[in-house]
Amino acid sequence: MAISIHLANSKGRDASVGLQGVSVPESPRLGLPDTTLVFRRYVAATEACTNESLTVAFGADYARELVNGDPEIDIELVGLSVERTQTVYVDGAGEVMFADPVFIELVLNPDGSEKERRAPVETVANLSGEIPVRWTGRKVSLQDAVRKFAFRRSVQLRHVDGLTYDFLFEMARELEEGRFLMLLGTGDKGGGPLVFQANGRPYRGFLEGQTRGKAYRLVLHLSDMELKKPATLPARGTSNG
C-alpha cells in the first residue's frame, strides 16, 4: 500500500502527507490466561485416499474394504506436520498445470450477471503522482455515507513536518465544522478513483475530520461498492399483462 498521498485541500493548495493504518483495539485472545496458543497443520489425507481414488480401486461400493483394510488412511503420511506449502494450479480434471494460467477479467452487471470478459486492464498507483488527489466538492453526510456505500477499509492521514501539520489540521477543522465527509478523486478534474498500488483495487475515498484542542484526526474511508435499493418485484399473484 502507498505510504504517502499527494493531497490538495478545498483551496487547491497541495502537499504530500503520510498514510498509516487506523489503530484499532486489540481483539480478544483465544485460550486461557497466561497461555499462548500455537496453531499447527497436519496431513489429514492424501490424494490416494480420496473418494475418487477409492472408487477407481475398489468400485463404488467399497464399504467392506474400509472395514477390512482401512485403505482410506495412509499410515506413512497421515498425521505428519505441515510446515511449508506452495501454491499450484490445477485444471478442471485436477491435473497440475505446469504453465502459468492466462487470467481474464470478468465484468458483472449490478444484478450479478456476466457482462463481458476481457484481458485484465493494467492500472497504476495514483496517490503520489504529480497531480494531487483533489476535493471534489461533493459533500456527504455520515448518515448518508453508511447507508449508500459499503466501506472496505480506512486509513489515517498524518503530517510529516510542521507545515503539513497546519495543512491537515485546518482540513480536519473544516470537515468537522461542516459536519460532512468529502469525496476525494484523482485526475485533472478529480473524477477518477483512488488506486493505492499497481493493479490494485480502485476505491472511492471519503475524508472525515475531527479535532480536539491542538490534536486532529483525518480518516480516509474507502469504498468499492455502492448500495442501491433493489428493483421492486411485482406482487405475487399479479400479472404485468
Give a nutshell description of this structure:
With 241 residues, this protein is of the alpha+beta class.
Structure description:
The mean pLDDT is 88. The longest helix is centred in the last third of the chain and has 17 residues, at 162-178. It is elongated and about 80 Å long. It is of the alpha+beta class and 241 residues long. The chain has helices spanning 51-58, 63-69, 142-148, 162-178, and strands spanning 4-8, 14-21, 105-108, 114-118, 134-140, 149-158, 181-185, 194-195, 202-212, 215-226. Among the domains are: 4-23 and 122-226, Ku70, Chain: A, Domain 2 (Beta Barrel); 48-75, no CATH class. A hairpin with a 5-residue loop joins strand 1 (4-8) and strand 2 (14-21). The protein starts with a strand and ends in a 15-residue tail after the last strand. The chain is built from 4 helices and 10 strands.
